[in-house]
Write a structure and sequence with these properties.
Elements (H helix, E strand, L loop, with lengths): L1 E7 L6 H9 L5 E5 L13 H20 L5 E5 L5 H12 L9 E9 L2 H13 L7 H8 L9 E4 L5 H16 L2
Parallel strand pairs: 1-3, 1-4, 2-3, 4-5
Length: 177
């Protein structure tokens, strides 16, 4: 049985850092950040690019899952709507080339308080990693995660290593019969 761990959360919550840490804890594991699938300059979130990123994500997830050496695929992205999960998963299994019954899907939303999110994003802005407008966009999405059909993992006060440990424990719990 293969596993896809889908980790969502607002920008700045710590998805990428935690997923990088987790990858190093699991043998036969690959990590895909959805942002890598449309790292375009200048960035444009139009319909054509949205369609392209979805194609890229589904293609890469499928290829990773078809690789016999890979047992766990960690995928992170903002994932702020159930419909995004549904679109990815429907397309991933649509033609039967990858049997859905052979893949366990675990969906997790990383969340934190508004203060923590502001602090983390402000550090990234000061370091030149993000643009200042990210704070408003991220805070706008934060409440959306409460209503998603996902496990919630609160990251306030946790390091990326600690979040990775909790994700690893969640994967172990989810695999028990």
């Amino acid at each position: 049985m293969k596993t896809v761990l889908m980790v969502g959360g607002p920008m700045g919550v710590g998805k990428t850092a935690a997923c990088r840490q987790l990858k190093g804890k699991l043998d036969g594991c690959v990590f895909l950040d959805g942002d890598w699938c449309w790292d375009i300059h200048p960035f444009q979130a139009d319909e054509e690019n949205r369609a392209m990123v979805m194609d890229n994500i589904v293609f890469l997830l499928r290829r990773f899952l078809q690789n016999p050496q890979i047992h766990t695929v960690i995928f992170c992205w903002v994932l702020h709507k159930d419909s995004i999960y549904e679109q990815i998963l429907t397309r991933l299994f649509e033609d039967g080339a990858l049997p859905a019954e052979e893949v366990r899907v675990v969906k997790v939303s990383l969340v934190c308080g508004e203060k923590t999110l502001r602090e983390r994003l402000s550090r990234d802005i000061a370091a030149g990693i993000r643009m200042p407008d990210v704070i408003g966009r991220s805070l706008e999405r934060l409440p959306l995660y409460a209503g998603l059909d996902t496990e919630k993992l609160v990251t306030d006060g946790l390091t990326a290593e600690q979040v990775a440990g909790r994700l690893q424990r969640l994967l172990a719990e989810e695999s028990r019969p």
